[in-house]
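Fold this sequence, please.
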Amino acid sequence: MFEKGKSGNPNGRPKKGSAWADIYNEILDSSIITMTLEIDGQIIQRSLKVQDNKTMRYALGVKLLEEGLTGNVQAIKEMSDRTEGKPRDKVQISDDDNNKTFTVVFND
């Protein structure tokens, strides 16, 4: 599997700004995104803008709400999990001989 004394990640952690989470957060915190793409030699420019000083993160929240209001159960579940937290499964085990109760919580 792994060689003793040799790193499993020789390049180390990605530099700040180049990790996926950093890129996504930068995009989501923006209010205007302009991209220039070259596809099959053709230059295409795309621009997204959110009005009223809102962010893309806000726009995605609104879109998720719209989807939920149309009955999209996955959107409703996502919004609920993000705002209320994911429900946990609990099992209680009682030891009547020692008068103790144990609670086991299962997470996803």
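The longest strand covers residues 32-39. The longest helix spans residues 56-69.
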